[in-house]
Amino acid sequence: MIPDDDLSRSLTVADPDDPGTTYISLVGNTYAMLVTGEQTDGRYCLIDMRVPDGGGPPPHRHDFEEMFTVLEGEIEFTFRGEKHTVRAGSTVNIPANAPHNFRNASGAPARMLCMCTPAGQDEYFTRIGDVVAGKDAPPPHLSENELAERRRRAAELAPTYRSEFL
């Protein structure tokens, strides 16, 4: 049986150019929080990722599903140690618990959408990154101590968000 419609939940229209969009600078990338777990009752989140040449996270894994659709450029995904170059128009699904990372090694900027289910990655990124003014805002200039603090915070909070760095 399907439950009744939950009238407390409303339609969400995600526009990365909306002035109310939160942009996070993290490891040199800029992430727009398009649809948050708060908006989906924790079911999923959707993040618009702008990844400059050379950008991407370190190897990691987590116990939730993660799907990427490359919108512009190309991204090199390493999945269980094997590299795959993914170009605009393609979608990659990373199964829960699988070791992976991505890197933009193309020589040009790239952009992709990332959906995580259930949600939580949006909140994790917000807690460990730095809010910036918009999609084209430069990353903040962080001192070595500030960078070390970001890495410490990411490692400390990773278990809370069901993630681990490898």
From TrEMBL:
Coiled coil: none
Name of the molecule in the record: Cupin domain-containing protein
Every Cupin type-2 domain range: 49-115
InterPro entries listed in its UniProt record: Cupin_2, QDO-like, RmlC-like_jellyroll, RmlC_Cupin_sf
Any one Pfam family match given in the protein's UniProt record, by short name: Cupin_2
Organism this protein belongs to: Streptomyces doebereineriae
